[in-house]
Design goal:
about 130 residues; alpha/beta; 4-stranded parallel sheet; 6 helices
């Protein structure tokens, strides 16, 4: 059984409940030192493509379509190694996905948590449209 995957803003204080802390943004968060981030990993290659990120522009009205496109990207060769690593980590331990995004519930971290917790449902969502 896979461990629960959580997500939160990197600017929040780390807690022991976080488990493995993984930054999933492509860019380093502004104003955040590496020490304060207290990361186990920075997995840039799991982040959405630059084109998808620019198209989405954190518009909550586009979130469902963003998720669909992002889930499709997670299956491509550019994301394959990072996806595999993240799946392995989450299968064995608690993982908290971190993002600098203000609206964390409409972020790639939230989408990734869903994708990791329910890969069949996420794939079905990606195939719709």
């Amino acid at each position: 059984m896979a461990a629960r995957v959580g997500y939160r803003r990197i600017y929040e204080e780390p807690t022991p409940r976080d488990g493995k802390r993984v930054l999933v943004d492509r860019l380093w968060p502004r104003g955040m030192s590496k020490e304060k981030a207290d990361l186990d990993e920075w997995l840039r290659d799991i982040a959405p493509s630059t084109d998808l990120r620019r198209w989405y522009h954190h518009d909550p009205e586009r979130y469902d379509e963003f998720r669909r496109r992002y889930f499709a990207e997670l299956e491509d060769a550019d994301h394959r190694d990072a996806s595999r690593r993240l799946r392995e980590w989450s299968a064995h331990a608690k993982v908290t996905l971190l993002t600098a995004t203000k609206d964390v519930d409409h972020s790639e971290a939230a989408a990734l948590a869903q994708w990791l917790d329910d890969p069949r449902g996420a794939r079905a969502s990606a195939e719709q449209a």
